[in-house]
């Protein structure tokens, strides 16, 4: 295929009905498209087959993870430009673009693209992809497998991406430009402790405790006695080592345990930071009920959770295929209103909601910068495909927060007393100081 880039650009624009917003460099070294724009590098013909047999983000994601395509230039700009030209799920049925294109002119262009990619069957998915699962969602066994896929990829890799704070959730940035990621993560942990009103000797349950950063901060800075639960064996081992090194084993216990199996309440406070996204819609009321039961009367819950925008037709909502196959298997996002409603239905009084989505965009950009700055080591710690998954997922997520496609919220709730006294400060957000 002589001058492949020109042909690809022409066929793509025919299918799209408009100009392609990025420049294309094909496997033969040819280039076509707007000067100065980010370059979509098509390294191998099979990238076309991946996309044509699975139009939309999953086909592109497979090509990206496999290294069949790449981006030169500003990755964020390229993703922003390409987001407007990718077919949404439902626009093309399974079986590929050839069956979807009913217009003879489009069918001809699709056939030409398929020919350019070679007439072989679709390539197998990259090994980093989770295969389709069967059976009920969010059983304890299935949740444990999903958590292991995402979190048990090596603590050294997470150290490289997250930095020394080892906090895998949205940081809390101040106005000072000089403040770094570690300072912003510490500020977030301290904000959570202040919202929970932690005091010396309080029992704190940290649900989804990760690598132990929240537990360490609460015990060290506030004198709390902490139980942290996680389904990740690698996280638990790392957290226990940190706790021992700081001499806090008498104050912190880390368990490999499902939150549904915690039975030693009541706790004075519960933190759930970036965990509820794994719970799923079918289990969310059970999640709220369980935390309500584990909390003492008058105790506080801080639920820190990513939220999606509500759909006009909620029945049409679908899980992002790339995220489901490569990043968070079985993860689900809910609108903020649904989360608040479930907590209230369980008996909580919701006292405060703080939206901090801009903070997450900045956090993700910091993680991407860490990954890119030590790329070769990241690849060595995992695999080329896994490192590419993370770069794409974090950069795309940063854009989603910036464009208000998704948000993140801290919801502070209280288990009410019979007297009606909430135990909260009279002035709202007294912890903000």
TrEMBL record:
Enzyme category, top tier: transferase
GO molecular function terms attached to this record: methyltransferase activity
Key words, A-Z: Lipid metabolism, Methyltransferase, S-adenosyl-L-methionine, Transferase
Domain Polyketide synthase-like methyltransferase residues, every copy: 157-416
BP terms from Gene Ontology: methylation
A Pfam family reported for this protein in Swiss-Prot or TrEMBL: CMAS
Entry's EC annotation: 2.1.1.-
Coiled-coil segments on the chain, per record: none
Region described as Disordered: 115-145
Family named by the database record: Belongs to the CFA/CMAS family.
Protein name: Cyclopropane-fatty-acyl-phospholipid synthase
The organism of origin for this protein: Streptomyces chengmaiensis
Higher taxonomy: Bacteria, Bacillati, Actinomycetota, Actinomycetes, Kitasatosporales
